[in-house]
Design goal:
- It comes from Pannonibacter tanglangensis.
- By secondary structure, this protein is α+β, with helices and mostly antiparallel strands.
- The protein is built from 2 helices and 5 strands; from the N terminus they run H-E-E-E-E-E-H.
Amino acid sequence: MLGKLLGSLFKGSGPKAPEGPAAQEDYKGFLILAEPRQAGGQWQIAGRILKEVDGEAREHVFIRADQLPSRDEAADFMLRKARSMIDQQGDGIFR
């Protein structure tokens, strides 16, 4: 299921990190892709939260103004924030 979901979502248009996901995590049925972006010598926190809902691939793009000095730090922050959003909103994140 996740392979099919990933394949269909990676083919689509939308913001992509230049090097692909820095990290990914399955969390409570959601797939989190941390995709930090370089911005002015730092790394902007960005990524996507994915899930198949009623047979349809759903995606929530997540971009924050925050910047951190390393790609790994930005990816870790994205994963933590995405987990928190999932805990608080569940499938409502896709509304």
